[in-house]
Amino acid sequence: MPQWPKASAQRKQYSMYVWTTSFDVTISGCDEEEFLRWDKDTSSCFTHSWDTPTRKQWLWDTCNRSGREVSSIYMSGFKDILERAYIEGNCGDTALQAVRDVLQQGHTNVQGLEIYALFSASNIDVSERHFVPYVVWYNDNCAQNQSEKFDGVAVNNEAFASIKCEDEETVVYLSRLNEIAEAAKLQQSGILKVHYSIGWHWGRNCDDTTQDNSVLWNGIFQKVTRHMIDIFDSVDAQVAFVTSTEIANRAEIADYEYALQHGKPFYLTVYTNKVSACTTSFFPSPCNWGDKTEANMLAVFDELESPLLGVSQAIPCIHYFRGIYSSGGNPDWPLHTNAVIPGARNNRY
Question: Could you tell me which CATH class the domain 14-319 is placed in?
């Protein structure tokens, strides 16, 4: 039996995005200056997030951080490997061993962890619907035990923002999203969950007024965001702000209450990566919208648990691992691992 790491009496249920590449303090020259510059296009400071034993352990330790446990991760980097094996019908593809290893290790090292294959084509065609069969096939044919299976598929498709004013296109878009859920149901060995990321304002009218953006789809006339919640097993709302009161307000606009009424887990995704508007991310910045530190982000999470804000059953979601959460890029954003990280600052929990 796995020996679960010591943690708080009741584990948190945070979720976290794990993109294929992220900031790496172990690379020579990747100091605080490079961290603050955050140039993914030209910098050599962004490496694979889970391709070595040390990087995997870094991830598992981050998920096990006492009192701030992560119970679901949306993890990219699988699509090409799974697609090739699926097309060739080859469970013996050598690259699949890396998939088996990371799934087995994650499920073994982190109590109750759910690992979702993250796809993000983010186009109007919703190409992610064509990738779900790769996961279904792998789980049914290649996974040698439950620990080697994906728990779900997560989709980050933001193309809806470009068509939210067009009812006919919205109906087609929703139908394509529904194909994701239907494809997941074809898995024969157990249940494959489906998760979707929505923009907090998508339920508003196309001019972003308080008027609802409602369409008739599947025989029901209601807000687009409610249709999306109906389709998927869970959603995260990209709230794009750094204060608890505004995050709570945006959660309500994104139909937190509706999700709650229908038994769907509802996550609040906060950005830690560098973005143009300082109000939308916890990335270090001199602007006046709160402390841009990990400590303040976690304080905001705690504030959201208060019944006074009205979203106490929403679950925090961190965007994203080593980008900048648990990166060690500067003292305000320490790394969280017991693994030996050569060259990294000794910022531990």
Answer: alpha beta
